[in-house]
Amino acid sequence: MATTDFSAEISALRATLSTISAVSDPEALRARIEDLSQQATAPDLWDDTDKAQKVTTALSQAQNELERITSMESRIDDLEVLVEMATEGAGDDDAETLAEAETELLTIRKDLDQLEVRTLLSGEYDAREAVVTIRAGAGGVDAADFAEMLMRMYLRWAERHGYSTAVLDTSYAEEAGLKSATFEVKAPYAFGHLSVEAGTHRLVRISPFDNQGRRQTSFAAVEVIPLIEQTDSIEIPENEIKVDVFRSSGPGGQSVNTTDSAVRLTHIPTGIVVSMQNEKSQIQNRAAAMRVLQSRLLLERQAEEKAKKKELAGDIKASWGDQMRSYVLQPYQMVKDLRTEHEVGNTGAVFDGDIDDFIEAGIRWRRSKRD
């Protein structure tokens, strides 16, 4: 006899879907799709390639989002029919059908959880694309190697979701790994999702770089900022920027370019430094560096405004600790988020980009702190 109360579970699924639909507003999505579809069929659309790509990408993403919401209702209906078929008899076939219903229930519940998390992303910049910077911290060559492991983890996460990425800058360490790296994740709500990954990450393992096989603790910092848009109007006077150009290089100092195409921008008032060497020309690298600099200044301005509000309210406690997640490979295997208490034992899967559960737990934790 089934232990699952399918009637109660299905009612709960419908209630959750109703809440999600109220927030997501399918009718507004349909109106947006219609508008974008008209823009996409304009005969002169591809006269401006950048605009055309933005329109077609936005249309595809809006259609996918609507499909995820509208298909969920029919999936719940199908589940209900499946349960009815299984409970009509008591034969082996009915037992298999019931097991199939159990599996589908778990799948729908997980997909609904992901849809529900999206409704929690209501911050000012949550809908933006993201710029992620990873820097090696204390721990020498192990920290540099850890920084490269984290970069791969996030790029694999993006790949799993079909999000495009672009590496903007990499600074390689002498022996192995990265001193720092900056890359974009080009997807709606990338900032909202990845912003909960910002902070200090810690790795504990037997160092592959220690010939005595000793255990090593190393650290890396993850910074996540929203990608600037032209409408944000962050103006930076030319006299506040120091521009340096240099030759791009790869691992071991091997020359990538024979011209000084890489660009380093220093914002004099704040000391913020941005380097770009991914593009072929100095002009392209300067434009990309300026965009990231503007994004960082935008986030800094937002942080200053938030700090002022906290000071006025008499609350000056930091909301993020020095260490937000630990990755332990020795003497046992575990990845644990110290804010949400979420933990898993499959460290290999995590480093291969399976971090959705950590991100979802982080988003729910952040929302609970705001409420």
UniProtKB/TrEMBL annotation:
Higher taxonomy: Bacteria, Bacillati, Actinomycetota, Actinomycetes, Micrococcales
Coiled coil: 52-118
Organism of provenance: Sanguibacter hominis ATCC BAA-789
A GO term from the CC aspect: cytoplasm
Family (UniProt): Belongs to the prokaryotic/mitochondrial release factor family.
Protein name: Peptide chain release factor 2
Reported function: Peptide chain release factor 2 directs the termination of translation in response to the peptide chain termination codons UGA and UAA.
Gene name of the record: prfB
Principal location listed in the UniProt entry: cytoplasm
Gene3D superfamilies documented for this protein: 3.30.160.20, 3.30.70.1660, Release factor
